[in-house]
Amino acid sequence: MDGSEICRKLDELAQSGAGLEELLAQAVELLHQSNPRFHWTGIYELYPDAVLRLGPFLGAPTDHVFIAVGRGVCGTAVAENRNINVPDVTQAPNYLACSSETRSELVVLIRRDDKIFAQIDIDSHELNAFDPQAVTQVETVADYLAHAYARSAPAPAATQKSGPKPQRRK
Q1: Class of residue 56 by CB neighbours under 10 A (exposed 0-12, middle 13-18, buried 19+)
Q2: Nearest Cα to 56, choosing from 33, 28, 78?
């Protein structure tokens, strides 16, 4: 399933009345299932206190439920306002190890204009797991989710002081 197909499924879900949280959870599930190299897939939401908080995810549990902006690959992506593809995490000086099995990581911001709402974080047990096609797929889904955040008024990331508990999907 490519990014456009995932977005079509998310759109169908939105049309049926699903809220933002359900869309995020379904996006994680569909992305995770779409590529055998995606071993951990999750969304970190950005809150006003400059902390990323873990939302829905699939994969092994992680201790990194909160990540400060500027810390690790996820926090650096926000601080530098850019997506980051790390082909070999052993070569990333700011990498926060979530699993000893992780070899590569992809972080794609969910943003609209200058507003960052969240990010999609994907880990793989394979080196250089994220080819241009995989990156484009995740960027397509992130763009769809940015529109979903913008439509939800006000967006949860802009109003909540403490985040929800992470939701591990089975």
Answers
A1: buried
A2: 28
Q: What is the pTM of this model?
A: 0.89
DSSP 8-state symbol, 22: H
Strand segments, DSSP code E, in 9-168 are 40-47, 51-58, 66-68, 84-86, 104-112, 115-124, 167-168
Q: Which residue has the tokens 């507003």?
A: 115
Strand 66-68 versus strand 51-58 pairing type: antiparallel
At 5-43, the pLDDT tens digits run 999 999 999 999 999 999 999 999 999 999 999 999 999
The full set of domains in the chain, from first to last, is 3-168 (3.30.450.40)
